[in-house]
Amino acid sequence: MESNPVLLESKSSPINLLNEMQQLRLLGHLCDVTVSVEYQGVRAEFPAHKAVLAATSKFFKEVFLNEKPVDGPRSNVFLNEVQVADFASFLEFVYTARVEVEEDRVQRMLEIAEKLKCLDLSETCFQLKKQMLESVLLELQNFSESQNSEEESATRPSTVPTAVAEREPLDSSVAALGRGASPEGPAAKSKEKM
């Protein structure tokens, strides 16, 4: 009697695989490529795994699939005009599927993702930029609404000051205006004499 097939699927395996690959990279184990990056005279080298880079970046996939066999187990890739911190963040992202960067670096991370043709990072940066823009727009809308409500309350006529004015006695300048005197008072008369 045959039994029905069942699916054995691990939810933790992809995360465990990424974590293990990251540990191997950080320790320099089984790395078969060194990526050298340079930007404005600052240079650094990063050991990595061709398979991980090729799986996450079409740029690296094209490079590795088109490279000629070399002497030795390790090949080198040189990237200029890429900042060291940005490439380090790129590597962390492709090895862990997450990276923490400052808000002002998100645009640079998007640029490196596009340069290296890393769709996952590009999409992640784009979504984050969209959220940041929506947040700014919401803040502007709230600010605009609060300004409008302040202006409306300032331009609405108030009944309380009118009622108070009716009860208070008129001062001499207001009484003089009522009798036809100039609103400028004595200063206007001295100008007329000149």
Q: How does this model look, in words?
A:
By secondary structure, the protein is mainly alpha-helical. It has a domain at about 15-135: Potassium Channel Kv1.1, Chain A (2-Layer Sandwich), CATH 3.30.710.10. Helix content is about 60%, strand content about 10%. The chain has helices at about 15-25, 50-55, 60-65, 85-95, 105-115, 120-155, 160-165, 170-180, 185-194, and strands at about 35-40, 40-50, 75-80. The chain has a three-stranded mixed sheet. Strand 1 and strand 2 (about 40-50) form a beta hairpin. Helix 4 crosses helix 5 and helix 5 (about 105-115) packs antiparallel against helix 6. The termini are far apart. This is GZF1 protein. One of its GO terms (molecular function) is DNA-binding transcription factor activity, RNA polymerase II-specific. Keywords: DNA-binding, Metal-binding, Nucleus, Repeat, Transcription, Transcription regulation, Zinc, Zinc-finger.
